[in-house]
Protein 1
Amino acid sequence: MTETDVRRGVVLITGGSRGIGAAAAVALAADGWDVGVNYRTRTDEAARVVKACEELGRRAIAVQADVTEADQIERLFDTVTAELGPIRAVINNAGIVSPSGRVAEYDAERLERVFRINSISAILVAGAAVRRMSTAYGGSGGVLVNVSSRAAVLGSAGEYVDYAASKAAVDALTVGLANEVSKEGVRVLGVRPGLIETEIHEEGRLERIGTTPPLGRPGKAEEVAEVIAFLASDGSSYMTGSTVDVAGGR
Ligand code: NDP
């Protein structure tokens, strides 16, 4: 990544300490954004992401917040706004996979946890983003990028059916919210990553799933991050309500 002289404004990324979120933070910094990096537990990793953004000549801060808690989402948005300025883009990225087994044997508590973070938190973060960016709330517009999953469309290779269903809610959020706020200066977009090499996959999962996409390999977080950076930029100015597959053809 190299520095740019372009200044685009402030972007907030949920789950920015690792994986796709961390790569998106660096790609967005390289593209001229000041970056609010949210994390839940990995303080050191978040600090490293902030440093990488600063080395690209941008301002960046790390903010600890659990986005399953509505009051923590509010504090997160308020902190980023107070420290960096008005938020012009939000990458709604935090999510989990939880080993699930057969649907017939699901545990309700685990299921609620998956939907809590992947679906409900994503909707709450989207609402918080709209309250900061929409002209209907005194904002001056912006872009929301929701991180869904190719599993939302394909199912999840014979397991993790709950995860796929929780991400289908994100796809519906992107379409529905775009209809709601497009006339208020907010564009709502999404990405559907395929299998991407990050810590979200427990040891051996990628090998076990064994589905090779047409491009012949799993993806890298940076390859999703580049698409997120494009969607957040003015280059996507005539797009809203769309979700882009970044899945190696899968
Ligand atoms: P990682 O497990 O590598 O990173 C997850 C990130 O989310 C971490 O930064 C983590 O923070 C954060 N996070 C988790 N729970 C919370 C929470 N409650 N509040 C705040 N932050 C939280 O995952 P990926 O980078 O692989 O995944 C990112 C997104 O991409 C997810 O939504 C995932 O579903 C989606 N995706 C990933 C695919 C893949 O193959 N990797 C495929 C399709 C979609 P911390 O480390 O500080 O705890």
Note: The chain has a mean pLDDT of 94.
Protein 2
Amino acid sequence: MVNPAWLPPEALRHLASRRAVVRSSGPVAQTVVDEITSAGGRVVSGETGTDPIDLHLGSGYGVGEQFSLQRRDGVTYVRAGDANGLLYGFFEVVRRGEAAFGADFPPEEHRPVMRRRMLDHWDNVDVHPVMGQVERGYSGGSLFWDAGRLTDDLDRVSTYARLIASTGINAVSVNNVNVSGAAFRLLTDRLDDVAALADRFRPYGIRTHLSVSFAAPIVLGGLSTADPLDPDVRTWWADAAARVYARIPDFGGFVVKADSEGQPGPFRYGRDHADGANLLADALAPHGGVVHWRAFVYNHRQDWRDRSTDRARAAYDHFAPLDGRFRDNAVVQVKYGPIDFQTREPVSPVILAMPDTALAVELQVTQEYTGQQKHACYLGPQWSELLGWDRVAGIAADGDGLVAVSNVGADGYWTGHPLAQANLYAFGRLAWNPRLDPAAILDEWTDLTFGPHLREPLHDILDHSWRAYESYTAPLGVGFMVRPGHHYGPDVDGYEYTPWGTYHFADRDGVGVDRTRATGTGFTGQYPEPWRDVYEHLDTCPDELLLFFHHVPYDHVLHSGRTVIQHIYDTHFAGAAEAERMRARWHEVRTVDPDLHAKVAALLDEQVRSATEWRDQINTYFFRKSGVPDAHGRRIH
Ligand code: GCW
């Protein structure tokens, strides 16, 4: 049986024997009716007035996905804008539990801050020779694709749709942004597969999106060019989009990775990213679709000897000058940091630099650089910190929303590590409301999944797990130091002399990347005031980002009062010890399913092993480089 994640039958038990009225129609309203019925509730007409009711759900009270929730005279009312709002209101009732049917409470207004709350799957249709069925997937095979074919288990897709819709997700992209093999043809003769998935997402208010290749007119259409200004190319895309909408009328749109890590794009034709994005935006516009055009563009073939090229600068250099040139339905999708989903990065300056462009911020729920779902690492606090930036959280209002790479696969627990379900849940909730407290989100998830008795141990294990991961991996924002290729585990110099642009520049005297305007790559100049100066100067640069922005000697004293080298030793000993503490805490938990307990225990063993390896490789590396002993005389190899 598939693990019910945060919607086991017990999570809906307070609906049993309740009488509900549902005033709304269509597939999403039908989902709400089915939910109530399968939880043991009764959906009544409410016409006679003699039949007392407990729950009244209706849509058409305003526009959009919002809803209000109220308890009055012993009836709980959900008054929603549209059918999606109805569904979200229903799941709010689920989250409230018995309290939704207790004492009266005045109307509460709920509305999503982010307009589009999207999960991108990096699922390949074929099994990719290097990346497998899911690129950076740590949860087994794909939910959607099985060695070139559409999955036989579409019911599991429905279950997934239900889970993510309950958190507020309303868009999903079903294939990898690196488009290869049969995935090209999802746009044409394999469109039925996409339609079959869309049929499963639709009842949960989720629109289906597709990653497409910029070279599709050549590969699929037999044209000699994919030049965005070529009239035949424009016609080809317009026809392709029309065919998609004829088959899937509520299709969401395209996702495109262009001129990035070998994917084709407009540069080849001497065009820029606005030309490329607008080509697809124009094809989608008559049908109400959007293109998500990724800003993850950099030179992945740089010469490590070339100190003037800085990967951190690339997205801004390519995109910021294009602000104002993108169509309204062209969404520029920007990774949260300037490099690549590291444990700690400053916010991407692109997000702060394009006020006249619809932007979406991209996160990684899949833990490529945060333990690959072998380490317990609750990312709610990281995302919450990021969303504390007004411009990031505010993107919804004038921009487009939040996107994340999903961490789900064919695994029985959905997410590989059972506790990584919390990340999927938290992403949806933060996309709905970026101001939610990640600790409170963890309570919600725990209550639904296990019941409140697990709140305390799970807080003990997860609350600081992201910081623990940061402590035992690359220090002070310098990033990477991972094994090249698969990116799991330490390899301090693994990327140092490669073309990938992810360097730490450690030598016998110091470490870090000088990105200042004064003496470095000038990256700090991509930020507006006050950040361009905050990051530029050693006395104002936050400790946790010091080595992202500066190259400093090992005896540089941090704001914390410690030297850089002592900070490295201390945090690595502490981080690995924290992993051991997390494991010990889990062993005190007695009240969960034995299989789940054993699975998490085994993963925590691996986390402790891996954290110890990180600690020892990093500490040894820097001890050998610097020759500075640990002030506390601990064992360094
Ligand atoms: O983080 C990197 C990954 C690639 C990924 C790329 C991207 C889909 O290592 O596997 O490719 O980012 O975001 O496009």
Note: The first helix runs from residue 27 to 38.
